[in-house]
Amino acid sequence: MASSEEQTLETAPDVGELTPPNRTLMGPGPSDVNPRVLRAMSTPLVGHLDPSFIEIMNDVQDLLRYTFRTDNQWTIPVSGTGSASMEAAIGNVVEPGDTMLVPTNGYFGGRMASMAERAGGTVVTVDAPWGEPLDPDDVANALAEHDPDVFGFIHAETSTGVVQPDVPELTAAAHDHDALVIADTVTSLGGVELRVDEWGIDVAYSGPQKCLSCPPGASPLTLSDDAMEKVLGRDTDPRSWYLDLSLLEGYWGSDRSYHHTAPITNVYAIREALRLVAEEGIEARWERHRELAGALKAGMEGMGLEMNAPEAYWLPSLNAVRVPDGVDDGDICADLLERYDLEIASGLGDLTGEIFRIGCMGHSARPENVLLVVTALGDSLEVHGADVDPDAGVAACRRALRSL
């Protein structure tokens, strides 16, 4: 009798047709994808050095510059998810022996710290509670105390629903200490006001699957001339060959020389997603996100729920809503998936079990989706015994939507 291993080798696995559920994606990402982007991904494959693909690469770079609000020559989509873009930024700019100042006010500040340490840097922190932005005075004091080579901050903290105000003040303070500034714009690019050049940001990275509503796989990154000068003048090679920007410069720069096989269909996708941004207009897109998230916020508050972030630094693209007493956030998220095919998410890190994270991003930021979230969440909370008024929430959301 053949062994179980031999049977496995001899018998083809019986795998059925791919039929994922048709969800409405209103969590922290990915967001719903525009049909135009999906169609772009189904177009014919060409080689990654084909002259026609090089034209596509040029288009993507121009569109990314528009969306980032930058003239940076070195603006590309990194082949990988947003974490690859993040690691490319930190792993190239931070050298062994460098000091990087990172925030402690959310989950992704911790990830910055981890990547900087792996790059050989020394990490120092500027502290703020989870759910609050960095205070410019605290940043200035930390810069004076530690004199870092690099300062990183999270523009839109996905774990807390907080947007960082006063960005030009932070970058000016960093530049006074000759520190390069790295900004995490994963949940803000294409959905929340972001002006890389005007605000003095040296390096910004993002992910395509949030406000750009593009499947993950080609992730935006932009570097100033000063940042690239540091990258190209390193004494040691970055620890990652794949994400070495001095090598990628040969592929995305003027030479277009081989480095790796680009994820061609993902580049098609981000090109089309960025075309949608340009057609809408970046400032109009920022306003759409603010208005529709405002209607979502009105619905949450109308039913008796509390936002995690005050109005002054509320993040429209990622709404952190406090979990009411008497319910389990995981049960609610599972119920919404089962009964409504609706995805929202629970909290991360210090806010695990304390908040719902509700996205309002890109193609998902539509009136019908906002109303669905308010209606479904109110219903689920009521079924699970929470002290909420679902009808009042829906009414408040409808009023806000009618005013747009």
UniProtKB/TrEMBL annotation:
Cofactor: pyridoxal 5'-phosphate
Compositional bias per record (Polar residues), positions renumbered to this chain: 1-10
Taxonomic superkingdom: Archaea
InterPro entries: Aminotrans_V_dom, PyrdxlP-dep_Trfase, PyrdxlP-dep_Trfase_major, PyrdxlP-dep_Trfase_small, SP_NH2Trfase/AEP_transaminase
Transferase found in the keyword field: yes
Protein family membership: Belongs to the class-V pyridoxal-phosphate-dependent aminotransferase family.
Name of the featured protein: Alanine--glyoxylate aminotransferase family protein
